[in-house]
Amino acid sequence: MITLVVECSIIGYLNRYINAYFEGNYDANNLLNVQFSVLTISNLSIFLGIFFMLPPLAIYFFARLKLLDGSTKFWRIFAALGYSYASYVPAILFTLIAIDLVKWVFIGVACFNQMFGLYKQSDHLVPSNAAVSQIPGQKELNDDERDNLVRVMRICLLISQLLFAFSLKTWFIQ
To answer: What pLDDT digit, counting tens, does each position of 97-127 carry?
Structure first.
């Protein structure tokens, strides 16, 4: 998360100057004097923190409260989602290209890559009945409940990641 905050701050800063250069409002001396905005870094930290924490929490609480499943672990879901954000690191770097359509394409490709990886992993994040039956005191999910949990997980991740990609591009990558 910290890597994305720092990268988005730097790339957003550089994008402003690249856009100003192409619009003719560029001042080379001002490039060295302008400092990072603490508000931008704070907003990015809160924005990314929300998208890093809310989807895993929603899935975890759905599994715990709705399905009474004790085998779904928050940290497994959190780690899978956290690693999936790595596809945004090169995509954000490539948004330095000053063509808006190209920026949307790179963010879209990163979003698709992330969602594809999460789709493939989501089935493995919910333990099967064979793994749960070895843990004493854990409720076993029947196949329908397990499929329902995986479906909710995939829908939750799909919506949150589409919202993340759109918000990231419109608010922080200009």
So the answer is: 878 899 899 999 999 998 888 888 877 776 6
